[in-house]
Amino acid sequence: MSKSVKDLMNEKSSRQKSLQFTEKAMPLFFLVCAIISILTTFGIVFTLAKETFTFFGEVPILEFLTGKEWYPFFKNDPSFGILPLLSGTFLIAGVAMLVAVPLGLSSAIYLSEYATERTRKIVKPVLEVLAGVPTVVYGLFALTFVTPLLQTVIPNLPIFNALSPGIVVGIMIIPQITSLSEEAMGAVPNAMREGALALGATRLEVALKVILPGSLSGIISSVVLGISRAVGETMIVSTAAGSTPKFTLDVTESIQTMTSYIVQVSMGDATYGSTIYYSIYAVGMTLFLFTLLMNLLANYMSRRFREEY
Question: 106 FRET partner, CA 20 to 30 A, in 29, 52, 202, 249?
Answer without folding.
Answer: 249
